[in-house]
Amino acid sequence: MNINHHPDITTLMAFSAGTLEDPYATVVATHLAMSEGGRETLRHINTIGGALLNAEPEAELATGSLDRLMDALGDDDRIDVTPHDARGTVTGDVPLPLQRHLPNGLDGVRWKWTGPGVATADLAWGKDGRSRLMLLRVGAGRPVPEHGHGGQELTLILSGAYRDRFGIFAKGDIADHDQDVEHQPIAEPGDDCICLVAVDAKLTFRGRLMRALQPLFGI
Ligand code: ZN
Fold first, then answer.
1. Ligand 1 center to residue 154 CA distance, Å?
2. 189, 191, 159, 165: which is closest to 177 by C-alpha?
3. For the residues 51-78, what does the mean pLDDT come to?
4. CA 49 / ligand 1 centre spacing (Å)
5. CA distances from 65 to 14, 41, 54, 61, 132 (A)
6. The dihedral of CA 33, 37, 41, 44: what is its sign?
7. What CATH number should be reported for the domain holding residue 65?
8. The domain containing residue 56 runs over which residues?
């Protein structure tokens, strides 16, 4: 699998520290199960986090000392503080961290019509009562209406691909967007694009029609 897009480093650090709400942590863990490179990055972050926890509290980190710490640690990954099981392998079409939400696989998903060419399925809510985990299916060649985000939107491609102004996102890729980003994903021709998405606020649609219909769609 050729994975080109990864979570932001701040998202990975929050994942490593165990402070991500469960919907976001599930998206990151599922991505890591699909991405050898992502697991390698997480091992480094875990190592640095563990070393910092063990450091003298008064010790000040001068500029560049984080890099020196990285060099000194090399590939030492004995310190493992991974709070979620991100080591899982992919079974069938559902990576291990996602299987508790999809016991019957993607074929068993009960999709809800959400708009022309677009369907969603709610999977879980975070403990904060705002963040949620859902599946999004966009028909091959169909667009998702142009929108912004009220908060962080973390999207992992499970199958198919889409394109927006940030490039092409295919299986295993993650799009990590905050509230400043507006975009209009369009599914690539061929297969439907199925994504695992964590959001903590409503999407903000630009078109008046979409804004009027949004309460019906529940996104
Ligand atoms: Zn978006």
1. 8
2. 165
3. 54
4. 30
5. 21, 18, 15, 6, 37
6. positive
7. 1.10.10
8. 9-98
Residue 15 CA to ligand 1 center (angstroms) comes to: 21
What is the Å distance from ligand 1's center to 60 Cα? Answer: 39
* CA 78 remoteness from chain centre: 26
Same domain, 93 and 144: no
84 in a structural domain: yes
Taking the C-alpha atoms of residue 91 and residue 129, their distance in angstroms, rounded to an integer, is 30
CA distances from 199 to 9, 11, 135, 149, 159 (A): 18, 13, 11, 8, 19
Residue 84 Cα to ligand 1 midpoint, Å, equals: 25
Percent of the chain at pLDDT > 90 equals 48
Residue 6 Cα to ligand 1 midpoint, Å, equals 16
Asked if 168 and 193 count as a contact pair (C-beta separation under 8 A), the reply is: no
- Last residue of some domain: 82, 98, 114? 98
pLDDT at 218: 63
Nearest C-alpha neighbor of 8 from the set 170, 155, 199, 131: 155
Q: Are 148 and 139 in contact (CB under 8 A)?
A: no
- Total of domains in the chain: 2
Distance 82 CA to ligand 1 centre (A): 28
